[in-house]
Design brief:
The protein is of the alpha+beta class. It is built from nine helices and 13 strands. The protein has a seven-stranded mixed beta sheet. A six-stranded mixed beta sheet has the order 6-7-8-9-11-10. Helix 1 packs parallel to helix 4 and helix 5 runs parallel beside helix 6.
Length: about 350
């Protein structure tokens, strides 16, 4: 009996936080700090729940045993993939390879350039690309002189390469210029028509891509992370992405980037419910972590996503590890289908 007390207390201390987080998941809400931060790592709550169950059993605390079993059952249920996987029935029209990478204040720029040259994606979504990063990408992937950039223009979108330089790999771009984490851009092999960037603390450029004569709306996602003092901003910016997805639900669309959210966040699930599907989910990789790169895999959260409208199928999703950044890159191989 003397050992029962400490074991019971430890079991309670382990099971209560897991119960609180799962309560918000059941309520389809993200709650307050630290719930959103813990929801990002929901599968890893199996460890404290399992340990709490073990301690309850050793303490012969049968209420705790039932409690622990119930928590493990709920966790197993919610670890299942979220969203639909039906394949479009229309005729295939074009293939599109999409790469998204957060280069962490530009630190992963050199590695990204090598990755792009090796993988040759058609669309590249780059987050946290500062002015130095922007200049290097112009020079090495678009054949432009960095001096041709316009640092006073925060928003820019180009439909064609510079007249003074030949067309190179990625002659088209849409960008929100900025320092540190504020800058973001989309590089494209396809011609782009400018679109207004989405409002947000960090840059979220967009455009319409001409993919073999078919208009595809492309939008970079980079809402603020769920910082303890900034949860309202995080929710609001994910709602902006939800509204964009809802507004373009009836047309081919790609929404990619660092969402700072997983399928276990209610705010992110609302983006999916607005008509988007996750390429990782479509290809069986819905739990593959992308952040932090230092521990992923095996430990981490999938916060970087390539979301597509129902006009697309996904053939493969790969997770790559460029140096100099705390995010893994996501490469999705997509097929655009004609309407049924």
């Amino acid at each position: 009996m003397p050992r029962r007390g400490p074991r019971l207390v430890l079991a309670v201390l382990l099971l209560v936080p897991v119960t609180a987080v799962l309560g918000f998941r059941l309520a389809d809400a993200d709650g307050v700090t630290p719930v959103p931060q813990l929801l990002a790592f929901l599968p890893w709550l199996l460890a404290p729940a399992g340990l709490g169950l073990l301690l309850a059993g050793l303490a012969r605390w049968w209420t705790g045993v039932v409690w622990g079993v119930a928590l493990l059952g709920l966790l197993a249920w919610y670890i299942e993939p979220y969203g639909t996987v039906e394949r479009p029935g229309g005729t295939p029209l074009a293939t599109v390879r999409v790469l998204t990478s957060n280069v962490e204040f530009g630190g992963g720029t050199a590695a990204l350039i090598g990755l792009v040259r090796d993988e040759r994606p058609d669309l590249v979504f780059v987050q946290e690309c500062d002015r130095h990063c922007d200049g290097r990408l112009r020079a090495e992937l678009a054949g432009e002189d960095p001096a041709d950039a316009h640092p006073t223009d925060r928003h820019s979108a180009d439909r064609r390469p510079s007249d003074r330089h030949p067309a190179h790999t990625y002659p088209y771009r849409a960008a929100v210029e900025g320092e540190g984490s504020a800058g973001s851009l989309i590089l494209s092999r396809f011609p782009l028509t400018p679109a207004e960037p989405l409002p947000g603390t960090l840059g979220m450029p967009g455009a319409v891509a001409d993919v073999g004569g078919h208009d595809v709306r492309v939008q970079l996602a980079h809402p603020m992370p769920p910082l303890p003092a900034g949860l309202d901003v995080w929710r609001e910016e994910l709602d902006v992405l939800r509204d964009w997805a809802r507004a373009h639900a009836d047309a081919p669309a790609i929404l990619a980037g660092d969402f700072n959210a997983t399928q276990d966040h209610a705010a992110f699930r609302r983006v999916l419910d607005a008509g988007m599907r996750d390429a990782a989910r479509l290809t069986g990789h819905d739990r593959t972590p992308t952040w932090p790169a230092r521990t992923a895999p095996p430990l981490g959260a999938q916060i970087d996503h390539v979301l597509v409208s129902r006009d697309f199928s996904a053939r493969a999703t790969r997770f790559l590890d460029p140096a100099g950044t705390d995010h893994r890159a996501v490469l999705a191989e997509l097929t655009l289908h004609a309407p049924e």
